[in-house]
Design brief:
There is one protein chain. By secondary structure, the chain is of the alpha/beta class. It has three domains: 3-242, Rossmann fold (3-Layer(aba) Sandwich); 248-313 and 317-430, 3-Layer(aba) Sandwich (Rossmann fold); 433-540, GMP Synthetase, Chain A, domain 3 (2-Layer Sandwich). Helices cover 38% and strands 22% of the residues. The chain contains 19 helices and 25 strands. An eight-stranded mixed β-sheet has the order 2-1-10-9-11-12-13-14, with helices on both faces. The mean pLDDT is 92.
């Protein structure tokens, strides 16, 4: 049975049971399996009447919603190729993706999105808003049969530098991946009669987010969709999830927020929190005393339950992907009793290469390769992958495809290492390497994470220095000069001469999606940052700290 047939069977079996909910303006809308199938049937009838055919590409431009899911399922069930787009992306960028994908139709959440696209693309294909797509009716039918190598979707990479490329994923990719995620979630949740509750806030046009959504539809689960990122804290508590997918940025902000509030609270609670945190660090080093164990026990009884209530009180684990999570952040959540399971992968690998085993989590590592997938280290510590999860190629880009698919292996561009238990660690991106004019090669990501942790109230750190004589740092946030200087002095003491960070510049403005300095899933656009702040960067190389 294909992944799509399995989802349709599950929805049919849950015809009277909730499967998807969305929180909108504080109100909850619930759809049963039967409700979703009815929406899918209506959309399929519209698509047929519109003259679309099997194999046609159709763009899906909308924020997360129950109807987004129904539109996605309808397109796949009709044998079409879904091109999911990020609704917050700039209209001119959306127009470029629609044109590149050669989509015959664009399904839009509303007229505002449709008008914005048409304003930048006078030759846009027909834009159909959801109210029109779901207006009619239809009868339930099984999804179209697809061969394993039949394309299902074209997902555009976020493009940290250069033009975004369309990643083609096939039915075979999806069949394999969803069987793997099901097995790992079974390990996490065990045997249950009651539905799993899953919270979801990441846009479903991203591969990892989409895979989790499809996984939930395949399982005895209730998926609750967030529609307002400014109310995440309240919505998480309302959804009372067992697990949900995260990017490192959110978890690191939660950790920083908890630590800041405990410091502001003061008194015995703040003192106990600090003492327990120190005791936890010594325990990780195998140096905990009896007093340390008592402090940890007191914190577990008095402090940590209240922190866990921020997540609704039923949380089994957090899942984290898209970028490496700081070890200290993973250990922090482990300390308060919330396991964080890491996932590593790229859109080209159907979102996943490795997944943490819930029974054996090593902070700082991202787990072993999923079943059926081979991974090895190539030149420059590059991670190479092959298996049924590897995409067949980029849409209409044979040259770019041949650059990353060589001799049966996908060249990820990521650097990593694997230990004796086959547990992987990601160390950085090859293309992000800083090469000083001395010839030294430096991976910036680990150093950026280290410096970020050392500077109070810092939001982001970016190292620069390609072709220069030394490293320098851009720091965002409401930070003080003396705090940055102190952090650099302490950090530089442990580093060889060529890795010392000798100058810095503080930016009050954060890097965001809106100002074009972050990708839609939170990754730094390093080339754009270097171009935006070229004057400030040039000025830094006339300064020195701890030289």
């Amino acid at each position: 049975m294909s992944f799509l047939e399995h989802i349709f069977e599950r929805l049919k079996g849950a015809a009277e049971q909730p499967v998807v909910r969305e929180i909108r303006s504080g109100r909850l809308t619930t759809a049963t399996g039967g409700d979703v199938l009815a929406l899918v049937a209506a959309a399929r009838m519209y698509l047929r009447q519109a003259g679309l055919r099997r194999g046609d590409r159709c763009a899906l431009l909308a924020p997360n919603s129950i109807r987004w899911i129904a539109a996605d399922l309808a397109l796949m069930a009709e044998g079409m190729n879904v091109v999911p787009l990020y609704s917050r992306q700039a209209p001119q960028e959306l127009a470029a993706l629609v044109r590149d994908s050669q989509s015959r139709l664009v399904l839009c959440a509303d007229g505002v999105l449709a008008d914005a696209l048409r304003g930048k693309m006078p030759d846009a294909p027909r834009c159909v808003i959801f109210d029109e797509l779901f207006r009619g009716g239809g009868r339930h039918e099984a999804p179209a049969v697809r061969a394993g190598d039949d394309p299902v979707t074209i997902i555009y990479t976020s493009g940290t530098s250069g033009e975004a490329k369309g990643v083609v994923l096939t039915a075979g990719n999806l069949n394999h991946m969803l069987s793997c995620t099901a097995a790992r979630l079974d390990l996490l949740m065990g045997t249950r009669k009651e539905p799993e509750h899953v919270f979801h806030y990441l846009p479903m046009n991203f591969a990892g987010s989409w895979i989790l959504m499809l996984s939930c539809l395949s399982r005895n689960a209730v998926l609750t969709l967030s529609t307002d990122v400014t109310r995440l804290a309240d919505e998480i508590r309302y959804a009372t999830p067992h697990y949900f997918l995260n990017v490192p940025t959110l978890l690191e902000r939660v950790r920083a927020g908890v630590e800041e509030k405990m410091a502001e609270r003061g008194g015995a609670a703040a003192k106990l929190f600090r003492a327990a945190k120190g005791a936890w660090a010594r325990r990780q080093e195998g140096k905990a005393s009896v007093g340390d164990l008592l402090r940890l026990g007191a914190a577990k009884a008095v402090l940590y339950p209240a922190i866990r209530q921020r997540f609704g009180g039923k949380l089994v684990a957090l899942i984290c992907g898209s970028a490496p999570l700081a070890v200290e952040t993973q250990l922090f959540f482990q300390m308060i009793g919330i396991p964080v399971l890491q996932v590593y992968g790229l859109t080209e690998t159907t979102a996943i290469c490795t997944m943490d085993d819930p029974r054996y989590v090593v902070p700082g590592r991202v787990g072993p390769a999923i079943p059926g997938v081979e991974m090895r280290v190539g030149e420059n510590q590059e991670i190479l992958v092959r298996g049924p999860n590897i995409f067949p190629g980029y849409w209409n880009r044979p040259e770019e495809t041949s650059q990353v698919l060589r001799d049966g292996w996908f060249h990820t561009g990521d650097q990593g290492e694997v230990d004796a238990t086959r547990n992987w660690k990601i160390s950085g991106r090859i293309k992000n390497l800083i090469i000083l004019n001395s010839g030294h090669n430096i991976a910036p990501e680990p150093m950026e994470d280290d410096l970020l942790r050392r500077i109070p109230r810092a939001q982001q750190v970016v190292l620069v220095g390609n072709g220069r004589s030394h490293l320098a740092a851009l720091v965002t946030g409401t930070v003080r000069v003396k705090d940055v200087e102190a952090a650099l002095t302490a950090m530089n003491e442990t580093l060889p001469h060529y890795r010392k960070i000798r100058s810095f510049h503080i930016l009050r403005e954060m890097f965001t999606v809106e100002n074009g300095l972050l990708t839609a899933n939170g990754k730094l656009k390093r080339d754009a940052i270097a171009a935006r702040y070229d004057t400030e960067i040039d000025a830094m190389f006339g300064k020195a700290v701890g030289a």
